[in-house]
Amino acid sequence: MIEQTKKLGFQSLNQGYNSVFRLGRLSLGLVVPIESYALGAVPTMTSHVERVQLAEKLGFAAVWLRDVPFNVPSFGDAGQTYDPFVYLGLLAGQTKRIALGVASVILPLRHPAHVAKAAASADVLSGGRVILGVASGDRPEEYPALNLSYSDRGQRFRESFEYIKRMSEVTPVFENIYGKPHGGMDMLPKPVSGKLPLLITGSSQQDPQWIAQNGDGWMIYPRNMGMQTQIVHNWRSQIEAAGRPNQPVMEPLYVDLVEDPDTPPLPIHLGLRLGIKYLKTYLKSRQEIGINHVALNLRFNKANIETTLKRLADDVLPDFT
Hints:
The protein is an alpha/beta fold. It has helices at residues 2-8, 15-20, 48-58, 84-94, 112-125, 142-145, 153-166, 208-214, 225-241, 276-288, 305-315, and strands spanning 27-31, 62-65, 99-106, 130-135, 198-201, 218-219, 249-257, 266-268, 271-274, 293-297. The chain has one domain: Luciferase-like domain (TIM Barrel, Alpha-Beta Barrel). Strands 1-2-3-4-5-6-7-10 form an eight-stranded parallel beta barrel, surrounded by four helices. Helix 4 runs parallel beside helix 5 and helix 5 (112-125) crosses helix 7. The relative contact order is 0.16.
């Protein structure tokens, strides 16, 4: 079965996962909010639904929401401000094809029963388009606000991950620190394809072997080419050693797309200011080393957002569809 999966592509999980992740190919998505707000932490959310609908119309593979419970000053970014699961429900009803991802739900800050119920509900409402990124969290200030310990978030991440996976079963019976489902109880609805895609973000306080053995994919931060190549190679070697089918890798990238297509790249926060020619070169190099999806973040983009989306659709997407 594993050899067959290697030849045919990644495992089939749901419509969103299958359309975004293809073996040997790279697709493009967008981080929500799709707007520029470089000068402050809080976006305006202007035309937010219309821009997601435009992204779908133009052919982007996915949009990605974030789980930012509090506007933490040291973090400097309030994300889309709306709760990701409430927003998933809205977007499920306002779109038809585009994958709806969360990058990523902070598992130790939520009870996994609530995460499993909300994510499965959004998956059903969207026709199987939800991709759930999960993380242990990196904003220490949020934990005391919820009377939770920051130091043991790694253990709670693992047990929450297990709990969410088990909720896809019919009347699951198990016990961990989050509870003891028993007595024939069942959680409804079930995900459309019977399983939610769970992508692990960074290390999430886990060792590489655990990530390789458990995730349906991996989200990693952008790094220089040599380092990223080695990281992807090592991880896929660990997946193979674990006897599992190949898994996709994705990365986010902040982009400030300038008008001159020949402008060489200059570093910005977790990304690049560059012309479209060099953006295509960057994305092709990522595809060559085994990155399967890049989620573009336009927070620092100076040009008009709708114009930028159309430029990307006309000049970049044809090479990555």
